[in-house]
Amino acid sequence: MRNGTAAVIGGGVIGGGWAARFLLNGWNVKVFDPDPEAKRRIGEVIGNARRSLPMLYERSLPEEGELAFVTSVAEAVAGVDYVQESVPERLELKRKVYAEVESVAPDVPLGSSTSGFKPSDLRKGLASGTRLFVAHPFNPVYLLPLVELVSGGGDADIQASASRILTSIGMRPLVVRAEIDAHIADRFLEAVWREALWLVRDDIATTGEIDDAIRLGLGLRWAQMGLFETYRIAGGEGGMAHFVEQFGPALAWPWTRLMDVPELTPDLVKKIGDQSDVQSGMHSIRELEALRDRNLVAVLRALKREGSAAGRVIADHEANLGGEDLGRIPMITVRRMVPSDWTDYNGHMNESRYGQVFSDAADAVLAHVGAGPDYVSAGRSFFTVSTKTDYLLETHAGETIQVETRMLIGEGKKLKLRHEMQRAFDGSVLATCEQFLLHVNLETRKSCDPERPVEDAIKEIADAHGHGRES
User: Fold this and answer.
1) Do you find a cis peptide bond into 34, omega within 30 degrees of 0?
2) What is the chain's alpha carbon radius of gyration, rounded to the nearest angstrom?
3) β 380-391/400-411 pair status
4) 1, pLDDT greater than 70
5) Which of 364, 284, 300 is nearest to 327 (CA)?
6) What whole-number distance in Å separates Cα of residue 430 and Cα of residue 354?
7) Same domain, residue pair 16 and 161
8) Please, which residues bridge with residue 221 across strands?
9) Which contiguous run of DSSP H or E holds residue 202?
10) pLDDT at residue 256, rounded to an integer
């Protein structure tokens, strides 16, 4: 779908994350927040996003949209395609914002980032309230794909349109079947949070020990399999039914105090604050955000390789991204950001990753001529026989690179490519690679001529590149 313009009302952590998510996916964004610090805060969030979101993908994101800070709700929502409200969790404040939006843009999808209110509570007093829905994200919005969509009897077409928009910017809309306070995920978080407060209050565990219990154990399982799939494995060959039969009765035991909330006395607040300072006080918030984002990128990239959980969402989004241009001469076969885990102890891209980039470039050419995965499944492929790589300039994490590829030989079973890896913003040549490939029958494992459509496509490109036959 075409990229449009989004209005973000409220420029805190969540609003800034929404702005970054839209902006880096090619949308123009207008932000309204009366706080004089909003521009600085959002700039820092967008900076975090620029350093992390592109690293999830093997292709480049769209050209970044334009960001504008405006002085009123009316100016923000005029002429936009989507509105996301992220003001503080005060019902009357939210309703005031909605009334202002309605007076200028009564037909535009209006999502609320509320973590607790139901749509029916939010839309009271609005003439066009059925276009308002909950679109509850998770921090950092620019990296975590989940967004809970709650219609609560709203306009089904509006929600469907919102779902398409949010999917197009790499998110995974989870439609909540019926409106309920705190939706789905935050109900889990509140239960864990209440129990954690009791454990700290009663000196059973410190804040650091509780965090270790999550990040070294159950949190790792939940990130890939969630709750029920994790317990299904715990049930062994008997599956989920066996697990429930075996452990279900324990729910009646007095293990937890989930229905009680400890009084947040000044002493308890101080205890939590002091323990948190001991645990993490040596780091600034920006340092913790950077650490969080690097770790999330690493986890999400690993999940993407397996096609699991949030990684599947990223892979699906990546499939719709562009970046390559194989119709030009030379061909643009790769355009992407260098992820942080590609660098080595010297602080620059490891040589093995150059091989990956040039291999990806060759794969793009092969897919373009019809020798992609389906062709390989049918028993034919190209094998690399030799490569020669020259490393010319250092390449660092966070840089956007592109590869220009020329076809030097395209004759029968022989294919020779020359790749030039460049720094995208200034065209500096970082490395070159000459790659010689032979077409192979995968059953006999011997070289042979390609199928005629592939051979013809290769010849056409080689001729266009001024080559074609070995001299």
Assistant:
1) no
2) 27
3) unpaired
4) no
5) 364
6) 10
7) yes
8) none
9) none
10) 63
In a 3-state reduction of DSSP, which class is residue 336?
A: strand
Residue 432 in any domain: the answer is yes
The pLDDT-based confidence of 374 (bands split at 50, 70, 90) is: very high
49's tokens = 């996003």
Task: Give the CATH number of the domain where residue 62 resides.
Answer: 3.40.50.720
Please count the other Cβ atoms lying within 10 Å of the Cβ belonging to residue 39. Answer: 14
Q: Rounded distance, CA 11 to CA 13, Å?
A: 7
| Domain assignment of residue 325, yes or no | no
Contact indicator for 206, 200 with CB cutoff of 8 Å: yes
Are 264 and 193 a contacting pair, CB within 8 Å? no
Overall domain count for the chain:
3
Asked whether residue 210 is assigned to any structural domain, the reply reads yes
The domain that holds 405 is classified in CATH as: 3.10.129.10
CA distance 310 to 172: 8
Task: Quote the CA–CA distance of 78 and 399 in Å, as a whole number.
Answer: 36
CA angle (75 as vertex; 70, 80 as ends), nearest 5: 105
Q: Which two tokens stand for residue 330?
A: 């030379």
The one-letter amino acid at 363: D
- In one letter, which amino acid is 454? V
Which residues lie across from 69 on neighbouring strands? Answer: 31
pLDDT at 84: 98
* Residue 125, Ramachandran bin (φ over 0: left; ψ between -120 and 50: alpha; else beta): left
Return d(Cα 224, Cα 226) in angstroms, integer.
Answer: 6
> How many helices (H) does the chain have, and how many strands (E)?
17, 14
Cα distance between residue 151 and residue 154, in whole Å: 5
pLDDT tens, 281-291?
A: 899 988 999 99
* Max Cα–Cα distance, the chain, nearest Å: 84
Domain that holds residue 86: 5-181
In tens, the pLDDT along 173-215 reads 999 999 999 999 999 999 899 999 999 999 999 999 999 999 9
The answer to whether residues 76 and 7 touch, using CB atoms and an 8 Å cutoff, is yes
Distance CA 224, CA 41 (A): 32
Whether residue 355 is found in the same domain as residue 424: yes
Three-class DSSP category at 39: helix
- 412-439 per-position pLDDT tens digit: 999 999 999 999 999 999 999 999 999 9
User: Are residues 158 and 40 part of one domain?
Assistant: yes
Using an 8 Å Cβ cutoff, are 28 and 50 in contact? no
- Reduce the DSSP state of residue 201 to 3 states and report it: helix
pLDDT number for residue 8:
98
Indicate the pTM of the whole model: 0.88
Of 153, 155, 161, 144, nearest to 177 by C-alpha is 153
Tokens linked to 445: 């494992």
154 and 191 fall within a common domain:
no
66 closest CA partner among 108, 6, 140: 6
